C-alpha cells in the first residue's frame, strides 16, 4: 500500500490534466464531479497509507521514482517519503480537500470558469501533496512553489478585477521573498552536507555534527521561507488580501493547508531547529507578535472574510509560538484542529456570502441564523472550537500551546493568553453580528436569504463534527489518557525541552483560560446586542486600518523602489551608461569632423605638410634612432 | 669625380624641386618641379650605382623614367582638362575636393 | 562530415533563397528542418566523452584549419539553433522582399552553427562575423522606426568587440609553434604558458568582446534598443541564439585559455554580472514597452549565467549548460507570445493592452506558463537550470559566494515582480485596447507555441536527458 503512495498525488494530477486541457470541452457539472472523485480516491489511498504507517514497526523506505537532477556530485532524486508526519498531513489535505471540492461544486456552479477552477484546485492539491510527500527539500520546494502558483492563480481567479490580480501578485511576490530564504537554506544544507534527503541528512545531524552557528543560519533561512508561506510578520500582509479569491479557496489554501506548510517544514526539520536555541527564540517571538497583532486587527474588521483571514494569521502565530517553545507536535496538533475549524468557518462564511448574494460586510448582516440554521449551528461550533472551550478541538490544541508557553516563560504565556482571549472576542463578535439580532441589509437581500444546498451544508456538518471531536487525538496526559498524536509523531518529530508540569498547574491553566474565554464571549455578546457602527477613532481606527502596515510598506519599500527604478531607467541607463556609449560615438564623430578640416583641398598645403613630415621623420631618425 | 659632387647636385636639384612645388601656384610649374625631384633621385641612383658597381640601381632609374613619363602623360592630360573647365591652372582655386 | 552539413545546408539554402522568388520561405523552412534533424542526430551521438569532429586544410599559410568538433555543449547549442530556426521562420510571414529576408536568416544560421562547431580560432572568428552580418542587414532593412541608428550602434559596438577578440586571437596564435597556429588546443596551450600580465591583457580583450555580445552590465545598452527595433523573428535569433555565442565563447575560448587571469578577474566579473541582474530587473519593473521589458529580463538572466560561468565550480558549469538551452527555449517562446500580442494589439505599449485572457485565452495561458518558466517556477525548465546555477554560485571558490548568492536571489524576487506585472497588464483586466476582437492562433503559430511549451514542461519535469547531454 505504502509503495503505491505515488498514486495519491497522481489522481489530482490526472484531474488537473483532464480539466486543464479540456477547459473548453469538459461540461461544467462533470468538472466538479471529476475533481471531487479524484480527491475521494486520493483520500481513500491516504487513509490506507495512514493506517499502514500507524501499524508499521520499522521506518518505511522512500519511494524512488526517478533522478530529478543527476549532474556529477549533485544528485537529487524525485522520491517520496511516507512517515507519520507526512501521512498525517496527507489525511488533512485530501480529507479537507475532498470536502472543499464537494462544497465548491455547488458554490461555483454558475461561474463561467468553473472547469478552470477545478483544474487549479486539483493542481493545488497535487502540489501540496508533493510538498508533504517529498523525500528531500527540493521536492518540498517544488510543491512549495507549486502551491504558491496555485494560490496566485486562484486569488486572481476573477482576473478582470484589477484589485484581485494585484492581490494575487502581492501574494506571489511576498511568497517569493520567503522562498528565497528557503532556497538559501537549501543551499547551505547542500553545501555542508552534500545532500537534501531527509533520511541521510537527519541521520547525519542526529549525530550532532552540525555546529550551532550553521544550524542557526539554516534554521533562520528556512524560517524566512515559512514566514512567507505561513504569513508571519513581516510577510503576512498578503494573506488578508488573498481573500479576493473564491471562498472555498480561502478555506482550502489560505486556512487549512497551504499556509500550514511552514509548520510542516519546521516540524520536518526539527533536528536542525533543536540544535539552535536562538532560532527557536526568534520563532517564538515572531509567532507571538504575529498572533497578537493579527488578533488585534481582527477585532475591528467588518469584512467577514477579513476577520477570518486575520484570525488565520493569528492562529498561525500560535503554531509558531508552539514551535518556538520546542513543542513541534503541539504545533502539528493545532494545524490539524485549525484545519478543521477554520475550514468550517470559511465554508460557513461562504455559505453566508452565497446567501447574501456576494455581500461580505457584516454591518449589513444580522439575524441570519433564522434563515440558515445549519450554517448557524456549524459556525457556532467552529467559533467555540477556535475560542477554546472544552471539549471542542481548539481547546485541547490551544491549551497545549499555552501550557508549552507557560513552561517556557511566563511572559510568553500571559501575552499568548491575551491573544487567545482576543480570538474568543472577535470570533463571537463575528458570530453575534452575523447570525443573531435583526437583519441590517437591503430588502432584496432579505428576500433572497436561504439555506445553502446540501452539497454545501454536508461539508459543513462533517467539518463541524471533526472540529468538535478532533481534540481527542491529543488528550493531555493530565486526563489520564495517552496523547495519541505525540506517540504517533514521535519517530519523526523530536520535541525539544518540553517540561512536564505538575497536574495542579495544568488544571489551573485550563481553568484560567476557560473562565476568561467565557467572560470574553459574554463581553462580545454584550457589545454586539446593540451594534453601533459609528466611525472609529483613536486606537480602534488604527486597528481598522490594520496598523497601517500596508501603507508603511508602500511608503518605505514599494514607492522608493519604484522611484529608484525610474531613476535607473531614465537617468542611470539612458543618460549615464547609454550616454557614455553614445558619447564615445559622438566624440569620434566630433574628432573626425575636426580632422576633416585638414583635408582642405589645396595641393600646396598637402605638399607642405608632406615635406614637413618627411623632414620631421628625417630629423627624428637622425637624432633618436641613430640609424 | 668624388661622389659628394653628385650628392650635392642632387640635393640642390631636389630642394629646388621642393621649393618650386611648394611656392608656385601654377600647376604646370609644380609639375615640372616634381619632375625635377624625380630626376634628382635618378641622378643619385645613377651615382651610387657607379660607386657600388651595382647595375640594379640603374634599372631602377629606367623604371622611374618610364613611370615618370607615364605620369607626365596622365598629369598633363588632367591639367589640360582642368584648364578647359576653369580656364586656369592655379592650384589654389582647385579646392573642390573639400566639398 | 555531418558537421560540415550542419553548416553547409543552411548556407546553400540561404544562397538559393536569395533567388527563389515566392518559395523562399518554404525552401528555408525545409532547410531548417533538415538542419534540425541533423543536429538532433549529432546531439544523440554526442555527450559525455563522445565527440564528433572534422578537419581539413583551410589557410595553411596562416596555420588555420577548417576544423569542426562537437562535444555535448556544442551539440546542445546546435540543437537549440536547430529548434529555434523553424520557429523563427514560421512566426511571421514576411512579404516585403521576402527572398532576401529568408536568405539572410538562413545565412545567420550557418554562421551560428559554425561558431558553435569551430575548433579553430580563425574559423571561429570567421563564423562569428558571418553570423553578425546577416543580422545587421535584417535589422536595418526590416526593423522598426529607429532601426538605422539602433542597428548602426549595435553593429559598431559588437564589431568593436569582435576586433578586440581578433587581436587577442592573433596574438595568441603568434605565441604558438606556428603549426596549426589557430587550433584550439594550441591556442589554449599558448595562453596557459603566458605570463600573468599578458594573460590579463588577453583576458580583457576577449572578455570585452564576449561581454558586449552577451551582454553584461555595463556593456548592454545596445541590447534593449536592438530588441525593440528588430523585427521579432530576428529578435529571437538575437536573444535566444546570438547572446549564447557570447557565453559559449566564454566557456570555450576564455576560461581554458587564460586560467590565471580568469581566477584574477572572476570576482570582478561576477560582481558586474550580479549588479547587472539587479539593475536590469529594477529597470524592467518600470518599463511600459513589452519588448523592452523582455529585453531587460533577458539581460538579468544573462547576468546570472555569466556569474555562474565565472564561479569556477562544476555544478555552476553544468547548470550553465542546462540553463543556456532552457533560456533559449524560454526566451524564444516569450518572444513568440509577445509577437502574437503585438500583432493583435498593434502596439508594444502595455498600457494599451489588457483582457487577453478573455479575448484570446490560449495565448493568455501560454503567456502565463512561459512567464512562470521565465521566473523559474519548479517543474518548468527554467527552475532546473537556475537551481543548479544558484547551487554552483554558492559553491564557487570566491570568498563572497554567499553574498553573491543572496544578491542574485534578489533577482528572483524582482523577476517575479516585473514578470507578473507584465502578465497582469497584458492578460488580465478588462479589454481596454480598443481592439474589439482578438483572433486566435493560426496552425503554424499554435504548433510552434505547443512545441516550445512541451520543451518547457518536459525538461522541467524530467531534465535528465539534457543534463546527460551536456555534462561529462
UniProtKB/TrEMBL annotation, chain A:
Localization annotation: Endomembrane system; Membrane
Task: Spell out where the chain crosses the membrane.
Answer: 6-23, 30-51, 84-105, 117-135, 141-159, 180-198, 210-228, 249-267, 279-300, 307-329, 335-356, 377-396, 411-433, 454-475, 507-525, 603-623
Gene3D superfamilies per record? 1.20.5.2700
What is this entry's stated membrane topology? Multi-pass membrane protein
Domain NADH-Ubiquinone oxidoreductase (complex I) chain 5 N-terminal span(s) in chain numbering: 69-118
Q: Which domain of life is it from?
A: Bacteria
Q: Which residues form the NADH:quinone oxidoreductase/Mrp antiporter transmembrane domain?
A: 136-423
One Pfam family from the record: Proton_antipo_N
- KW Nucleotidyltransferase (keyword) present: no
**What keywords sit in the KW lines?**
Membrane, Transmembrane, Transmembrane helix
Main location per the UniProt record: membrane
Q: Which PANTHER family match?
A: NADH-UBIQUINONE OXIDOREDUCTASE CHAIN 5
Quote the protein name from its UniProt record: NADH-quinone oxidoreductase subunit L
Please report the organism this UniProt entry assigns to the protein.
Answer: Rurimicrobium arvi
Automatic annotation (TrEMBL), chain B:
Compartments annotated for it: namely: Cell membrane; Membrane
User: What membrane topology is annotated for this entry?
Assistant: Multi-pass membrane protein
Its top-level enzyme class, in one word, is translocase
Q: Which reaction does it catalyse?
A: a quinone + NADH + 5 H(+)(in) = a quinol + NAD(+) + 4 H(+)(out)
Lineage, top-rank taxon, reads Bacteria
Q: Where are the transmembrane segments?
A: 6-22, 29-48, 60-83
Which keywords, in A-to-Z order, does the entry hold? Cell membrane, Membrane, NAD, Quinone, Translocase, Transmembrane, Transmembrane helix, Transport
- InterPro entries attached to this UniProt entry: NADH_UbQ_OxRdtase_chain4L/K, NUOK/Mnh_C1-like
The record's EC number reads 7.1.1.-
* Family in the record: Belongs to the complex I subunit 4L family.
Q: Subunit structure, briefly? A: NDH-1 is composed of 14 different subunits. Subunits NuoA, H, J, K, L, M, N constitute the membrane sector of the complex.
| Function field | NDH-1 shuttles electrons from NADH, via FMN and iron-sulfur (Fe-S) centers, to quinones in the respiratory chain. The immediate electron acceptor for the enzyme in this species is believed to be a menaquinone. Couples the redox reaction to proton translocation (for every two electrons transferred, four hydrogen ions are translocated across the cytoplasmic membrane), and thus conserves the redox energy in a proton gradient.
**HAMAP family assigned to the protein according to its UniProt record, in alphabetical order:** NDH1_NuoK
Q: What is this protein called?
A: NADH-quinone oxidoreductase subunit K
Say which species the protein is native to: Rurimicrobium arvi
Taxonomic lineage: Bacteria, Pseudomonadati, Bacteroidota, Chitinophagia, Chitinophagales
Q: Which gene encodes it?
A: nuoK
UniProtKB/TrEMBL annotation, chain C:
- Ranges annotated as spanning the membrane: 30-51, 72-91, 111-138, 150-174, 201-222, 234-255, 261-286, 293-312, 324-341, 353-377, 397-420, 441-462
Q: Write the protein's name.
A: NADH-quinone oxidoreductase subunit M
Q: Does the keyword Transmembrane apply?
A: yes
Q: What is the lineage of its organism?
A: Bacteria, Pseudomonadati, Bacteroidota, Chitinophagia, Chitinophagales
Domain named NADH:quinone oxidoreductase/Mrp antiporter transmembrane is located at: 118-404
Superkingdom field = Bacteria
Q: Does the keyword Transmembrane helix apply?
A: yes
Q: What membrane topology is annotated for this entry? A: Multi-pass membrane protein
Q: Which family does it belong to?
A: Belongs to the complex I subunit 4 family.
Keywords (alphabetical) are: Membrane, Transmembrane, Transmembrane helix
Instruction: Give the matching InterPro entries.
Output: NADH_Q_OxRdtase_chainM/4 (IPR010227), NADH_UbQ_OxRdtase (IPR003918), ND/Mrp_TM (IPR001750)
Any idea where this protein resides? Answer: Endomembrane system; Membrane
The organism is Rurimicrobium arvi
Amino acid at each position: 500500500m505504502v509503495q503505491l503512495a505515488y498514486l495519491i498525488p497522481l489522481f489530482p494530477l490526472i484531474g488537473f490534466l483532464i480539466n486543464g486541457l479540456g477547459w473548453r470541452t469538459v461540461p461544467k457539472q462533470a468538472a466538479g464531479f471529476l475533481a471531487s472523485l479524484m480527491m475521494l480516491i486520493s483520500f481513500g489511498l491516504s487513509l490506507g497509507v495512514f493506517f499502514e504507517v500507524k501499524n508499521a514497526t520499522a521506518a518505511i523506505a522512500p519511494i524512488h521514482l526517478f533522478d530529478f537532477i543527476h549532474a556529477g556530485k549533485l544528485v537529487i532524486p524525485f522520491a517520496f517519503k511516507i512517515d507519520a508526519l507526512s501521512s498525517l498531513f496527507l489525511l488533512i489535505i485530501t480529507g479537507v480537500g475532498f470536502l472543499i471540492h464537494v462544497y465548491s461544486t455547488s458554490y461555483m456552479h454558475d461561474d463561467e470558469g468553473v472547469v478552470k477552477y477545478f483544474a487549479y484546485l486539483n493542481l493545488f492539491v497535487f502540489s501540496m501533496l508533493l510538498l508533504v510527500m517529498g523525500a528531500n527539500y527540493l521536492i518540498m520546494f517544488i510543491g512549495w512553489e507549486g502551491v504558491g502558483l496555485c494560490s496566485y492563480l486562484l486569488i486572481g481567479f476573477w482576473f478582470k478585477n484589477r484589485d484581485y490580480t494585484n492581490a494575487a501578485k502581492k501574494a506571489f511576490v511576498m511568497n517569493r521573498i520567503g522562498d528565497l530564504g528557503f532556497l538559501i537554506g537549501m543551499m547551505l544544507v547542500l553545501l555542508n552536507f552534500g545532500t537534501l534527503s531527509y533520511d541521510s541528512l537527519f541521520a547525519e545531524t542526529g549525530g550532532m555534527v552540525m555546529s550551532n552557528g550553521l544550524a542557526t543560519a539554516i534554521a533562520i533561512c528556512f524560517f524566512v521561507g515559512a514566514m512567507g508561506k505561513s504569513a508571519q510578520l513581516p510577510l503576512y500582509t498578503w494573506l488578508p488580501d488573498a481573500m479576493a479569491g473564491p471562498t472555498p479557496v480561502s478555506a482550502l489554501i489560505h486556512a487549512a493547508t497551504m499556509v500550514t506548510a511552514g509548520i510542516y517544514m519546521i516540524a520536518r526539520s526539527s533536528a536542525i531547529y533543536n540544535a539552535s536555541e536562538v532560532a527557536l527564540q526568534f520563532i517564538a517571538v515572531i509567532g507571538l507578535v504575529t498572533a497578537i497583532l493579527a488578533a488585534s486587527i481582527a477585532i475591528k474588521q467588518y469584512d467577514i472574510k477579513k476577520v477570518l483571514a486575520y484570525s488565520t494569521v493569528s492562529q498561525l502565530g500560535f503554531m509558531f509560538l508552539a514551535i518556538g517553545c520546542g513543542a513541534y507536535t503541539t504545533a502539528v496538533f493545532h494545524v490539524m484542529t485549525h484545519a478543521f475549524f477554520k475550514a468550517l468557518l470559511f465554508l460557513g462564511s461562504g455559505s453566508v456570502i452565497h446567501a447574501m448574494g456576494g455581500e461580505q460586510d457584516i454591518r449589513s448582516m444580522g439575524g441570519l441564523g433564522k434563515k440558515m440554521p445549519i450554517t448557524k449551528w456549524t459556525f457556532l461550533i467552529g467559533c467555540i472550537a477556535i475560542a477554546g472551550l472544552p471539549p471542542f478541538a481548539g481547546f485541547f490544541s490551544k491549551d497545549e500551546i499555552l501550557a508549552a508557553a507557560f513552561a517556557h516563560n511566563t511572559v510568553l504565556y500571559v501575552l499568548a493568553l491575551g491573544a487567545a482571549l482576543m480570538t474568543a472576542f472577535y470570533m463571537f463578535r463575528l458570530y453575534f453580528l452575523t447570525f443573531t439580532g435583526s437583519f441590517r441589509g437591503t430588502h432584496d437581500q432579505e428576500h433572497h436569504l436561504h439555506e445553502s444546498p446540501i452539497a454545501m451544508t454536508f461539508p459543513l456538518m462533517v467539518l463541524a463534527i471533526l472540529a468538535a471531536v478532533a481534540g481527542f487525538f491529543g488528550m493531555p496526559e493530565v486526563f489520564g489518557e495517552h496523547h495519541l498524536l505525540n506517540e504517533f509523531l514521535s519517530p519523526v518529530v523530536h520535541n525539544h525541552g518540553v517540561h512536564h508540569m505538575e497536574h495542579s498547574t495544568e488544571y489551573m491553566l485550563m481553568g484560567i483560560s476557560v473562565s476568561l474565554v467565557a467572560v470574553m464571549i459574554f463581553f462580545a455578546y454584550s457589545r454586539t446586542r446593540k451594534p453601533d457602527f459609528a466611525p472609529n477613532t483613536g486606537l480602534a481606527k488604527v486597528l481598522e486600518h490594520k496598523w497601517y502596515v500596508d501603507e508603511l510598506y508602500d511608503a518605505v519599500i514599494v514607492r522608493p523602489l519604484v522611484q529608484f527604478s525610474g531613476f535607473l531607467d531614465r537617468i542611470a541607463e539612458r543618460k549615464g551608461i547609454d550616454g557614455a556609449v553614445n558619447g564615445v560615438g559622438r566624440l569620434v564623430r566630433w574628432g573626425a569632423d575636426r580632422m576633416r578640416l585638414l583635408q582642405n583641398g589645396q595641393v600646396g598645403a598637402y605638399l607642405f605638410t608632406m615635406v614637413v613630415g618627411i623632414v620631421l621623420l628625417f630629423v627624428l631618425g637622425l637624432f633618436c634612432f641613430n640609424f | 669625380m668624388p661622389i659628394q659632387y653628385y650628392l650635392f647636385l642632387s640635393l640642390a636639384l631636389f630642394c629646388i624641386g621642393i621649393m618650386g612645388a611648394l611656392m608656385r601656384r601654377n600647376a604646370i610649374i609644380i609639375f615640372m618641379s616634381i619632375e625635377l625631384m624625380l630626376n634628382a633621385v635618378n641622378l643619385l641612383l645613377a651615382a651610387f650605382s657607379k660607386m657600388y658597381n651595382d647595375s640594379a640601381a640603374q634599372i631602377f632609374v629606367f623604371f622611374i623614367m618610364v613611370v615618370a613619363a607615364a605620369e607626365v602623360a596622365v598629369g598633363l592630360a588632367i591639367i589640360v582638362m582642368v584648364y578647359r573647365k576653369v580656364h586656369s591652372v592655379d592650384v589654389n582655386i582647385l579646392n573642390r575636393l573639400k566639398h | 562530415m555531418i558537421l560540415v552539413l550542419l553548416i553547409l545546408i543552411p548556407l546553400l539554402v540561404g544562397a538559393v533563397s536569395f533567388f527563389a522568388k515566392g518559395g523562399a520561405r518554404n525552401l528555408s523552412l525545409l532547410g531548417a528542418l533538415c538542419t534540425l534533424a541533423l543536429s538532433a542526430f549529432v546531439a544523440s551521438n554526442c555527450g559525455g566523452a563522445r565527440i564528433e569532429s572534422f578537419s581539413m586544410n583551410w589557410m595553411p599559410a596562416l596555420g588555420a584549419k577548417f576544423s569542426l568538433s562537437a562535444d555535448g555543449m556544442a551539440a546542445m547549442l546546435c540543437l537549440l539553433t536547430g529548434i529555434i530556426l523553424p520557429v523563427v521562420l514560421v512566426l511571421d510571414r514576411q512579404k516585403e522582399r521576402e527572398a532576401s529576408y529568408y536568405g539572410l536568416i538562413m545565412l545567420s544560421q550557418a554562421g551560428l552553427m559554425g561558431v558553435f562547431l569551430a575548433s579553430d580560432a580563425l574559423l571561429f572568428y570567421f563564423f562569428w562575423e558571418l553570423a553578425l552580418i546577416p543580422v545587421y542587414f535584417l535589422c536595418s532593412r526590416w526593423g522598426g522606426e529607429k532601426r538605422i541608428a539602433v542597428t548602426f550602434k549595435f553593429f559598431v559596438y559588437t564589431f568593436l568587440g569582435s576586433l578586440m577578440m581578433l587581436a587577442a586571437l592573433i596574438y595568441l596564435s603568434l605565441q604558438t609553434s606556428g603549426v596549426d597556429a589557430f587550433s584550439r588546443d594550441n591556442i589554449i596551450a599558448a595562453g596557459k604558458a603566458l605570463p600573468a600580465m599578458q594573460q590579463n591583457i588577453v583576458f580583457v580583450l576577449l572578455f570585452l568582446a564576449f561581454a558586449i555580445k552577451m551582454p553584461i552590465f555595463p556593456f548592454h545598452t545596445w541590447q534593449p534598443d536592438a530588441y525593440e527595433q528588430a523585427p521579432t523573428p530576428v529578435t529571437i535569433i538575437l536573444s535566444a541564439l546570438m547572446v549564447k555565442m557570447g557565453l559559449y565563447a566564454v566557456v570555450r575560448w576564455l576560461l581554458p585559455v587564460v586560467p590565471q587571469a580568469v581566477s584574477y578577474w572572476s570576482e570582478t566579473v561576477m560582481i558586474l554580472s550580479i549588479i547587472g541582474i539587479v539593475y536590469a530587473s529594477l529597470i524592467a519593473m518600470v518599463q511600459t514597452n513589452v519588448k523592452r521589458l523582455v529585453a531587460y529580463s533577458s539581460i538579468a538572466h544573462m547576468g546570472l549565467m555569466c556569474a555562474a560561468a565565472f564561479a569556477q565550480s562544476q555544478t555552476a558549469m553544468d547548470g550553465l549548460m542546462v540553463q543556456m538551452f532552457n533560456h533559449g527555449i524560454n526566451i524564444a517562446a516569450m518572444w513568440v507570445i509577445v509577437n502574437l500580442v503585438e500583432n493583435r494589439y498593434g502596439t508594444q505599449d502595455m498600457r494599451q493592452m489588457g483582457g487577453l485572457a478573455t479575448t484570446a485565452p490560449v495565448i493568455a495561458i501560454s503567456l502565463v506558463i512561459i512567464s512562470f518558466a521565465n521566473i523559474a517556477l519548479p517543474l518548468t525548465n527554467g527552475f532546473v537550470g537556475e537551481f543548479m546555477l544558484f547551487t554552483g554560485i554558492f559553491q564557487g571558490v570566491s570568498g563572497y559566494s554567499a553574498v553573491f548568492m543572496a544578491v542574485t536571489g534578489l533577482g528572483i524576487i524582482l523577476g517575479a515582480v516585473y514578470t507578473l506585472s507584465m502578465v497582469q497588464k497584458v492578460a488580465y483586466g478588462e479589454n481596454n485596447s480598443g481592439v474589439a476582437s482578438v483572433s486566435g492562433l493560426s496552425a503554424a503559430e499554435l504548433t510552434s507555441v505547443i512545441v516550445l511549451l512541451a520543451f518547457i514542461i518536459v525538461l522541467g519535469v524530467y531534465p535528465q536527458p539534457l543534463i546527460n547531454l551536456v555534462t561529462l
